[in-house]
Amino acid sequence: MVSHAIEVRNLYKIFGPRSADYVDAVKSGMSKAELNQKHGHVLGLSDINISMPAGGIMVVMGLSGSGKSTLIRHINRLIDPTAGEVLYDGVDVCRMNEKDLRQFRRHKTAMVFQKFALLPHRTVLENTVYGLEVQGVQSAEREKRAHQWIDRVGLAGFENHYPNQLSGGMQQRVGLARALTNDADILLMDEAFSALDPLIRVDMQTVLLDLQKELKKTIVFITHDLDEALRLGDKIAILRDGLVVQQGTGQEIVLNPADEYITAFVKEVNRGRVVNIETIMSPPAGEPEGLAIPRGTVLESVARQMTEAHQTKAHVVDEANRPIGAVTLSTVIAGMVSPIGHEQTAA
Ligand SMILES: Nc1ncnc2c1ncn2[C@@H]1O[C@H](COP(=O)(O)OP(=O)(O)OP(=O)(O)O)[C@@H](O)[C@H]1O
Ligand SMILES: [Mg+2]
């Protein structure tokens, strides 16, 4: 069973002086627009229920104003909910006393911001050790740890530079090193890569994915960008007007968008990079033919391997190398372009 580090349960946030008075109305279905027009209160979040996988990347996406930042700020309780729970390892963050909350924030969570939020008068090294300073870790120990992470994010040699001497991508590497130096279980990343140039942004995604392979942090990552969401997210939740309109794996969302809003989001997606081979394979029939392709391989990669090997047939194997299905090159290619995946190729 997947363990969940963070469970958000029945979470509501209404902004305004009498927020508690309107929870029932919102629970009975009052929309964000209605709440605003009738009562001048803003619906930030409504009935959010999300299990965030321990050691995985949870992506939250949605248009501007949909409630993404409001949600992530509940996790370290920079915002108090109007109703509901945020459980970390079974403990409700929203009910922690001040001391426990301080401990939780300092030791369990680290944030990476869009605008980097580096201290301009501090060097890379001094910025990186900041969290450990606050924790009261000794100087030799904190510098040792900081050096290690500065190295890991590719900034060795820049320890004594100041932020304004670095490019945006490098500054965000410092932001990441600073967060990792804290050694927190939970990384909260609110549009952390959104201010970067497209190529640098993809670089940073790669840095994060490489680190995550060994670190297995519980990461909550907010983005506007579907390609980024699909690349990073073990699980994705899509918000609109404070509501979760769909959650699931990237593939689930791309294959079965819940409504028109999400259909519009996923329309331009490169399906070949998202849909995996199990989705389109037919049951194994007779002796396995052609290339053996591991389950979980995305269609673009399957098509490339088959083309390079001059094969029109392939079979799919599980972790123990047992055949679990068969495909042809034409079904693979159809799956990359078809909006309804296997249903169409099966016809
Ligand atoms: N302190 C506040 N007081 C009143 N309304 C707020 C407050 N903070 C957020 N809101 C409102 O709550 C809603 C959600 O805002 P939030 O900042 O979470 O959106 P977001 O999805 O992060 O948007 P963006 O992509 O622009 O960062 C918006 O309608 C916003 O105006
Ligand atoms: Mg935001």
Short account of what is shown:
The chain is α/β, with parallel strands linked by helices and 347 residues long.
CATH fold-level name of the domain at 97-233: Rossmann fold
pLDDT averaged over residues:
91
| CATH H level, superfamily name of the domain at 97-233 | P-loop containing nucleotide triphosphate hydrolases
Strand order of the largest sheet: 6-7-8-3-9-10
Ligand roster: adenosine-5'-triphosphate, magnesium ion
The CATH class of the domain at 97-233 is identified as: Alpha Beta
Instruction: Name the shape in a single word.
Output: globular
Which class of secondary structure composition applies to the elements? alpha/beta
DSSP strand count: 13
The DSSP helix count reads 15
- Spell the H/E element sequence: EHHEEHEEHEHHHHEHEHEEHHEHEEHH
CA radius of gyration:
23 Å
Strand content: 15-25%
**In terms of per-residue confidence, which ranges show pLDDT below 50 for 5 or more consecutive residues?**
340-347
**Largest sheet properties:** 6 strands, mixed
Give the CA-CA distance, first to last residue.
Answer: 35 Å
Describe the structure.
By secondary structure, the protein is α/β, with parallel strands linked by helices. Among the domains are: 97-233, 3-Layer(aba) Sandwich (Rossmann fold), CATH 3.40.50.300; 272-346, CBS-domain (Roll), CATH 3.10.580.10. 38% of the residues lie in helices and 23% in strands. The chain is built from 15 helices and 13 strands. The strands form three sheets. It has a six-stranded mixed sheet, sandwiched between helices. Strands 2-1-4-5 form a four-stranded antiparallel sheet. Strands 11-12-13 form a three-stranded mixed sheet. Helix 7 crosses helix 8 and helix 13 (299-308) runs antiparallel to helix 14 (329-337). The longest helix has 18 residues, at 198-215. The chain is globular and about 65 Å long. The structure holds adenosine-5'-triphosphate and magnesium ion.
